[in-house]
Amino acid sequence: MKGDGALAEKLAADFLQRNGLRLIESNFRCRMGEIDLILQDGGTLVFAEVRLRSNMRFGGAAASITAAKQAKISCAARIYLQQHRIDAPCRFDAVLLDSLDAKRIEWIKNAFEGA
Questions:
Q1: Is 3.40.1350.10 the CATH number for 2-112?
Q2: Could you write out the DSSP letters of every residue in the chain?
């Protein structure tokens, strides 16, 4: 799945860039967690979680972004903002895939609120 996850993130990054966002960083890691993609959308910084789920048995890709996962992403985002001394509007998006097919990407802007 590691290889598929990297491919899903590449597909998502390409998709978001085609939709006008500018990629700043991929796979930001810190002690609190990881952020798959960090992008610029106009004056807004976007922290994007990419989820690939081909098995719908447990609710699919969207259901896999649990409250605990959201909290980790939010903490990692705060650390990123502090480390880079950024004071800008932010949002948390989700890019969902049920296969490695760019035509089947679902992009949810403001998928959840950051803390």
A1: yes
A2: -HHHHHHHHHHHHHHHHHTT-EEEEEEEEETTEEEEEEEEETTEEEEEEEEE---GGGTHHHHTS-HHHHHHHHHHHHHHHHHTT----EEEEEEEESSS-GGG-EEEEEEE---
Q: Is-contact 37 13, C-beta < 8 A?
A: yes
pTM over 0.70: yes
Report residue 92 as tokens: 């948390």
Token pair recorded at residue 105: 């990407």
Q: Where are the domains of the chain?
A: 2-112
pLDDT tens by residue, 10-55: 999 999 999 999 999 999 999 989 999 999 999 999 999 998 876 5
